[in-house]
Design a protein that fits this description.
Layout (H helix, E strand, L loop, with lengths): L5 H15 L7 H8 L3 H14 L2 E3 L5 E3 L3 H12 L4 H5 L5 H17 L4 H8 L3 H37 L1
Antiparallel strand pairs: 1-2
Helix pairs in contact: 1-2, 2-3, 4-6, 6-7, 7-8
């Protein structure tokens, strides 16, 4: 699963499997027994998953999986637009789709703490493309600053010529 290590992915699947098919309320011990692991090792993995927002543990100790953060961000952004997931993860280079990808990439980076490689896996793009999503806005900002400096310098030159 995107955003999880292999061990965390196994634990995530085990929690869902115990809840759905075995009808056992999944807790740390049940997951450890199911995976033939020590409870302490599973506890460390589950704590990491809780910090990242993939798992919730209630007061009794029962575990529940949450929608992965990247899926929540995708659902939120796509629900506000008329674009499908296939459009976002596909090869379309239309400006509107690229702008939506930039929004998704920024939210995944800022809200979920995902790195460029993970964002690239979510969007089905290369990491270089994701880096460009972040640099394009900076380039445009630099370009606007350069234009403003040039206009100010040009206006000052024209005033000097008129004064002379």
């Amino acid at each position: 699963m995107i955003g999880l290590t292999k061990k965390q992915s196994v634990v995530y699947v085990a929690i869902n499997h115990l809840r759905d098919t075995k009808a056992i309320p999944p807790n740390r011990r049940a997951v450890a027994v199911y995976l033939n692991e020590r409870t302490f090792n599973i506890g460390v993995v589950i704590d990491a998953m809780k910090r990242r927002g993939f798992v919730v543990e209630n007061k009794v100790g029962d575990l529940s999986t949450l929608v992965p953060p990247h899926e929540a961000v995708l659902a939120d952004v796509l629900s506000r637009t008329s674009v499908t997931l296939a459009d976002v993860t596909g090869a379309c280079k239309a400006a509107r789709i690229v702008a939506i990808r930039r929004v998704i990439a920024k939210r995944l980076h800022n809200e979920c703490g995902y790195g460029f490689r993970t964002i690239a896996r979510v969007l089905n793009k290369s990491p270089r493309v994701v880096v460009e999503y972040f640099q394009t806005e900076k380039c445009a900002l630099r370009s606007e600053r350069r234009k403003a400096k040039y206009r100010a310098r040009r206006a000052a030159e024209l005033e000097m010529r008129e004064a002379a």
